[in-house]
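Protein 1 of 2
SEQ + STRUCT:
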Amino acid sequence: MRDLIARSLTWVLRLLLPAQGQHSTTATPTTPEPAPVSPWSRPWTAPSSQEVRAIFQDERTQELPPLQRERVWAAEFADLGLDYDFPTMPLGSLVGRKGAA
């Protein structure tokens, strides 16, 4: 019962008396958040489309078997400092079901 009386008295006093301390009505100035950095503000670091087309349309790799062609492409991308993560050959043709289990 005392707790209920104390809570109701506190509520009434909060309504009647002005706020003091940290809860005063004067607003504190806030610092604005920094603007997000645009990814377009830094230079392009990937190879150009001409470089990639030259790798895929090279005449000497067109006559190679598909597996060797993939390896040559991966080696040429490695020379540029990139990983060749998107092989065009399906993995099922390289690994048999018995070997993969």
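Protein 2 of 2
SEQ + STRUCT:
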Amino acid sequence: MTVGRTPAITMRQWYFEEAHGHYDIDLGDSYVGGSRLSDHTMPADCLLDYGNGRGTTPLRSVVARLYGRDPSHIGITHGGQEALYLLYRTLFSAGDHAVVFTPGWEQAEPVLSRAGCRVDAVGVTPDGRPDVAAALRRIGPRTRAVVVNSPCNPTGRQITAAGLRDLAEALRPHGGHLLLDEEYVADLGADSLVGAYEHAISVSSVSKVYGAPGLRVGWMCGPPGVVDAAMQYKHFTTVTNSVLLERLAAGMLERSEDHVRRYRQLIAEGLRTLEPWVDRHRGTLRMWQPEGTPYAWLHTPGLPDSLEFCRDVLHRQGVLLMPAEVFGAEHGIRLTFARDPDVLAEGLRRIETVLAGRPTAAGPATPTAAEGGAGTQRAGSNDDGTA
């Protein structure tokens, strides 16, 4: 994986423009699908007023219970994306500094750069984890936050406990924050990293684990003062969420154990299918073992161009994949395997058809630092897309 590049194509361009309407098998979206409105009880008595800018009390209370926190630590947002945006706008001022990891979700770099902040993007280690050593060299007195996505989208790998501790120790002297994008943490009470540092803030939603991105309900969990400031800023973005969608989200979260169980079951079943399939193509594909994510990162040393390969799979076979290029990287594919077994098997069969007809490129037999190692850049103002 080569990282630290300006995306050749953005997520928005790939997903909403080029791929839209061209696939019937989705191995690209990173959430566990299947949730339909008919699966939920419509709250017919719901008063369609403005609700509450911080989120309705029932929803904030159930999110707080997931973390084992008081509701004063919780703010409800229009998806996890808005939570991150509100935090960027409230924590940072012109001239401040942030550290982000790449490849990853592209929102931080353009938003903060356009606000006059300096952003350093550092890469991952050869095993796909955030390169904490590289990040530590960039943290200084103006570093307002280090943005950590763990498990990472798209690598599927987690930051180590030692790495998290080192980041906290570097940030603590000047009150810098750890901004934790935890969309793929299934059990927030047991596995969220927000308790590891007093200035940590967790962001998540019902989009990924619960498979309901269409509800656009997310949240932040952190120090009450930070949450208060972000929720005040929300008055100038979406004001409040839909009270109807918040009611539906609260109902899902009340049944969190069922959703988490299904999420983990689909991951386990999907891996049992994916691993031998990747092994059959070991000369062309290599996989970083995913750590609790519904997707895996596949290195493509045997393919000359991962974007063109994903285009072939999309337009010839009707299967959606996510090429490395949408994450500012090269020579890789994010493939979501937490799917109905028949759908996954058919999708892999179609991909195999394209693989069989592709010329191969010479590539190293094992991951190298150039593929998985640290890449560093001064972030530019890339055109960002969506999750």
